[in-house]
Amino acid sequence: MPEPVKTITTTKYGRRMFALAHQTGTIPRITKLAFGNGGHNPVTGDPIAVDDNRTTVPGQFSTLYPAASVTANDMICTIVGGLNYGDEVGQIVSSCGLIDSNNNLVAYKNFSPKYKDADSKFEIEWIEQF
Question: Which of 25, 35, 101, 127 would you call most buried, defined as having the most Cβ atoms within 10 angstroms of its Cβ?
Answer without folding.
Answer: 35
